[in-house]
Amino acid sequence: MKALIELWKEGRTRFINQLAQIKPEDLSKKLGDSPNSAGFLIRHIAEVELLFAKNVFGNMDVKVDAQTLKAGKDTGEWIDLEALLALMEEAGMQLEKAIEGQDDWDTVIETKEFGKKTKAEALGRIITHTAYHAGQLAIMVKYGT
Which domains does the chain have, with CATH numbers? Predict the structure, then answer.
C-alpha cells in the first residue's frame, strides 16, 4: 500500500510543485482561444480527485460539488487562489485516505465516464489525469494571457 501512495504522490508533484509559484493574476490566464483558464484547471483537477476518492475508491466522507463539470466550461469564477489551494489540499487528503483504504486492487468498478476498470487501472487514470492537466497549467501560466 505504501508503494501505491508514494506512486500517486510522486505523480501529483508535477501539479503540486506549480501551485507554490501561482499568483492570483495567473488564474485568469488562457491560451489563445482556449475556453478554460488556469483557475478553472486547478478547480477541475481538485474536483476530479475528489470524485475519484468518493465514487471510485469509496471514501464516503468526501463532499464534492463538481462545479467545473456541471458548467462544462469556464465561467470566469475560479479566481480565488486561497480557496483553490484549500480545495486542492482537501482533495489530496481525501484521495490519499481513499487509496489507503483499498485492499483489493483487482476489483472492477464501473463509471459512466470511463467504463469498467480495475481499481489499479483507475489509480493510473487519476494519476495521469492530474499530470495531463498539470502540463496544460504550466504552459498556460507561462505563455497565457
Answer: 2-143 (1.20.120.450)
